[in-house]
Amino acid sequence: METPEQIRDRLLARFPDATVTVVANPGPAAQHSLLVDPARAVEIATFLRDDPALRLDFCSNVTGLDWPEREVVETIRKTVPLSPATGAADASPASPAVESATPIVEEKVKRLQPGYLEVVYHLYSMALKHGPVILRLRTGNRTDQVSLPSLTPVWRSCEFQEREVFDLFGVAFRGHPDLRRILMWDEFRDHPMRKDYAEPDDYEWEPTPHETVLAKARAHYSSPAPDAPAAQSP
Amino acid sequence: MMPEPPLSRDPAPVARTPGGALAPDLPPAGPHLRQVPDSFHGDLLEVSMGPHHPSTHGVFRMVVTLDGETIVKLKPVFGYLHRNHEKLGENTTYLASMPYTDRLDYLNSMTNNWAYALAVEKLAGLTVPERAEYLRIILAELSRLLNHTCLAGFLLHDCGTSGTPLMYAFRERERILDLFESLSGSRMMCNFQRFGGCRTDASPEWLEAARRLVDGYGRFLDEFEALITGNEIVMARLQGSGILRPDLATSAGVTGPMLRASGVNYDLRRVDGYGLYPRCDFRIPLGNHGDTYDRYMIRVLEMRESIKILRQALRDIPAGPVLDPKTKLRGFRPKPGEAYGRIEGPKGEIGFYLVSDGSPNPYRYRVRPPSFINLTILEDLCLGHTVADAVIILGSVDIVLGEVDR
Amino acid sequence: MSDAAAPIPPEPAPRAQPAPAGGPHPPAISSAERDELRRQGILLTSLEELYNWGRSNSVWPLQFGLACCAIEMIAASMARFDIARFGSEVFRPSPRQADLLIVSGTVTKKMAPQVVRLWNQMPEPKYCIAMGACAISGGPFKQGYNVLKGIDRFIPVDIYIPGCPPRPEALLHGLIALQKKIRGQTLSGPAAPRHLRAETACTYPVPAFGEHDLLPPKNPAVWQPPSLERTD
What we know:
Chain B is α+β, with helices and mostly antiparallel strands. Chain B contains 15 helices and ten strands.
């Protein structure tokens, strides 16, 4: 089967205005994936399904992922000029040190990397018995731009799995035939698999609480809570 | 268009054309019934079958819209057993999630354990000793025997046999559970596989007991089949209902015996060749029609192939360790990355997608549930059939709610 | 009653406290004398014993399985463990015909209203067994946004069977304990069972689906969290 780079090149040749990048998978599994922009996702998916060399007719798994925004600390190495005549300060991150006459200052800059929701599709071929080819689609952010095109018209197996991603993560799939909650009840408001979901507080009674459960149960105990839960039994 | 029916005071029962509006050109059922034009509808009736229903295999709900007895719409509703297994996976370590995988497809805990262990071994790049691979094959095929036997029993219970084949099926299941219990300590929730092998070794007595069970299983299957497979009631009810086309099965991601009953040759034991299955000699039964009877027969034939695999594995299992002594079980932190590992479970492809960020807990822990995805086409299979057939079609899909809802 | 072929009821549990007011005192006959009479073909019993004996030896469960424990419940009704010999001959599919609700498996918040509705539909006298850790308190899935932390938050439970899953023998042990409990019930007075007391409610309130949790999350009339008492 072709490597992800070869697939990417063929996709870019076929859809020149699409954005397809290879996301390398650092672990030993080496299952690299293709990040596809949502605008051309359905066409790319149809191409992958019908292409005679790939024939990826089986969408095995649709997963949602939540990447909340996080602070990224980057170290920028700046050379500080000793005198104004020798030249301007070079502020590029990996600039090599100039002669030891100019000292290098390392500055830590905090950057807020915006969060997004991601949907990962694992594609296999039943006709040619190869795979997986992994597609990734990312939303704009986690708050208002949470819409992605649905790949249910391409592979029917996405129908329930995309509904589950909608239910648990909140990604709205455009073009899905029946987008409703599937695992939680319809009146439920939150999206539980997100990293910032707060569970409802129903830990009134725990026989041997510790750590986070003790912290939750402490709010409900009428008598003084045990101080060191490891030492005593309640 | 149908001709206007003659007015008469004939008290003979009226029948719609069989298949209703979906197949108006089928011949009428019997000369004593008069045809009713399709424009005569009557009100449609919406029935909620479940979540508490004797035949829905757990807390599964089907909202069926009926036109008389014929199903015109079917919407499955689940989530009644959603126990947030994936959220728990994010909050526990890799090893602590292993007992939770027992409770996914709670009939076959050994195969769930293996699928998870395989995914983590892919994620962390671990190798498994040969004896452990053989032991895994033995346990997985015993699990397959157990599952298919129970499925045959439950399917016939759905047909209305009121429990007798189920008693025979559970009698055999108890024999296999005795083996599981003596090896792993628990009948159902075995928690037996570890990352890099199995938890404990199987003694020679256990292997001998397994051989005796496998040798006797063929006779039980013959006895079962003699009563069931050629039974004309079973054939009349199961044949022709719930036909699944192979292209729809592929597109809908159906895997397992249900897919092979439609004629698609896709068995992960051959395609992926995980474990030491490439050394085993077995055939893949394929169905011709894709109806409920084919799904039942494929499972019976797969049981016979499993017996073959078990004989080979029990004969060839080498001596050696089942877990590398230097394997790190506590403080297990795989490198950042992701992996998707899958095996051919008795119900279909069960896979685990794990994303690691270097910490002891997975960042994302996803189960690919075969029963959940096999239910995608339940509506397509049941349209035009009666409610009684819907129960049997659901029985042949072979769902377990612990897996559907996780 | 004197009939040599009459079935022999089990020995009544010896009562230390005096018989409750409102009924005639049972005759002061020792159990040795009772045995002797029985050997001669004379059966002496009280209405209470007979009533309880009939009720306890034919407890018909509802065919109600939620999760993994349901498979062990089915195994308990199969040929090896055979719950039928304890009187639970048939598992009734309809709640109107069942005496016992064995809650076997995790009760999720989505399923909880249906469980309470089924409980309401069962006629009195009815009993509830919480089988498995999940039905007792949420079990291994306790840290769950959709898991009800024990079915006793909404309906009264008579017997708790721990285990994950409990073996079929454990379910039989729980059933025998329930039978003992039924046999020990007095027919009048404050300790009488629910269906003989006029003040007990007929229906238990069914929780509704809220935006984040069930409404109400528990039934205070049925369940109160135990308070911790420090002994030092």
